[in-house]
Amino acid sequence: MSLAQGTHLGPYEILAPIGAGGMGEVYRAHDPRLGRDVAIKVLPRVFADDVERLRRFEQEARAAGSLNHPNILSIYDIGTHEGSPFLVMELLPGQNLAERLRTGALPVDAALDLATQIAQGLSAAHQQGIVHRDLKPANLFITTGERLKILDFGLAKQCPATSPGPQTELPTQDLAGSTQAGVLLGTVGYMSPEQARGQPADKRSDIFSFGCVLYEMLGGRPPFSRGSVAETLSAILTEQPPPLGGPSGPVASRLERIARRCMEKRPQDRFGSAAELWSALEGVAQAPALETRPQEPPDRSIVVLPFENLSPDPGNAFFADGLTEEIIADLSKVRALRVISRTSAMHYRGTTLPLPAIARELNVRYVLEGSVRRAGNNLRITAQLIEAATDGHLWAEKYSGTVDDVFDMQERVSRAIVEALKVELTPQESRRLADRPIENAYAFECYLKARREILRFDAPSLENALEYLEEGLRVLPDNPLLLAGVGYAHIQRVNIGVGQEESLEKAEAFASRAIYLAPELPQGHLVLGLTAILHRGMTRAAIEHYKHALAAEPNNPDALRWLGMFCTYLGKSHEALALSNRAVAIDPMSPRMFVPLAYCHWHDGRFEAALAVLEHAGSINPNDPSTKLVRAIGVPLLFYLGRDDEAAALVESVEKDEPPTIFGHLSVLWRCAFSGDRKKISTLLTSEVLKTCRRDFEYSWDLACVYAKLGDADSALAWLENAVELGFLNHRFLAEIDPVLAPLRGDPRFEALMARARE
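User: That's the sequence. What structure does it adopt?
Assistant: Structure tokens below.
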């Protein structure tokens, strides 16, 4: 049915056609009652008797009409004309996103702004239990004021607002807009893998489609569009989008990472909700602190990508990892180089990203890649150094020998890289390159496995780590690197609350023995630095240990991270920020590396910026064990900012983490304090939890805040005194900035304690 100008649909007068789609024709019309122009969508008469189309049309009206949000098209009215139903909607001046994208990719800031608005609108719809299921550029309208509106809930369905589980399947719409039961519901090219299979779709399908839209805004092309419907569907199901070749820089890289997480094949690997997605985008928008890396990579910056295991035995992967690890460790000893850490380098294991894209993400100029082939006791190593921007090969070499020669081969590779980059080694650096902290391949593999377990930061993994280290020490008794590893495992047992004084003493004993045997070994100094400041109140000793570690290994991200944290606790904000930025530059793919940067802003009163840093960190790699840590750390900030509902929801999520962590436990205490649940707090503060908190100044501060919020000044001051005694000496944060401690200010005991902290 085509309506002529002047036709009346109830009180509305048709002025002109606007467009047509599979779900109806759209007209500009005038409402004389309110003196305004509106848009009217009419179901064509030829389909008026189609029960399924009528049902879906009415569904659109119910779904969209229930939503009231600035980023969702408003529905004013519904009616019928000569048997055909129609919708009355707001009339929008502007263009849809598909029209905007005809000229190519959007500027990064514009893409971020529009993406944030889409996420806000989706979040509002999902909270009402409404899934769009056909999100695409043509259904996203940009007004002349750059306000984005989500259009056309014609494929929307109702689902429980609290559950992302499977829903009842509806008939489907193909590319031409016709309806075919059981085929495809949505628009090919933007539909999720589950939609492409004809399976039930939930809110996470919208998140997949959002990722496709964000990718297209950044790159100017859809991620999965191919020459035919079949090829497009195959790409959605089996292929990864090619790397974006558009603007570089931290914001573009983070947005691409968000888009790729949205487009994960498995729904459970995507953002869990549009609200979480929105939060990640806000983290990008609100984090000027993250814009610390120069647009041009430093001249002598390098990433050593994981060496490929070409051996028939997949068990030799750890051997290849060991070689990668040792080369990174060698190069990290050279002060003139900026070397990406092992953790961030391993993030690219098995990646299909081209080298220029990897280098752009990590902001490095050079890439070292190679392979290892092991057959029995024979070994063959190939390596090549590449300038990423030009794909030029600066150096390449092959090495053959036996397994016993591996550490000599590794040193030869490291020295060749230094020479190729025209770096002149100091005598100390040359000597350190010749050092062999461990010379047995099997013992080193035990060390690597143990370190992987330690970074999981839970009790079972720490027990596994100790077993690996004990196995290594049976092969190499009194090896300094293995001894330091044992010390690190024990200090982490204390930090997570499963080890007490005995573990603390073991950590100190093993690390001290390691330093006695190898005075320059960074790993031993790292452990003693942690025990000194976190649990013994020996601030100066801790700083000296970390300076020793950095002197031996200037690119050690853990030394930079912890020293940055300690400077924050001491109120040395400028030093803390510089160290934290260096840690992030060296290890940008490790969520835990962003914690000191967040604390810098937190302790200076920039709570929004701190939260944005943590939200960004949480979006980098959801499978990284430290992601649980950064999520839990953000709970107090949400309470600071008055976002109590978000904080409570985050705590509920953190509570489900397995295995549980002390950070999750403390998060629950914060929630109970803000809700006034004294009874549950008493239940949670077991003797073991109290012992753990008494040994750690940060945990002591947490309990001081909990009691201050409850109005228990005596308990709050007792815990705060313990925090100060152990080394929490940032008196400006405690005395002026922390809003939860405000009730204590003016109390003579508090003022006396702050005077001690200043000293």
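Confidence is low (pLDDT under 50) at residues 158-184, 288-294.
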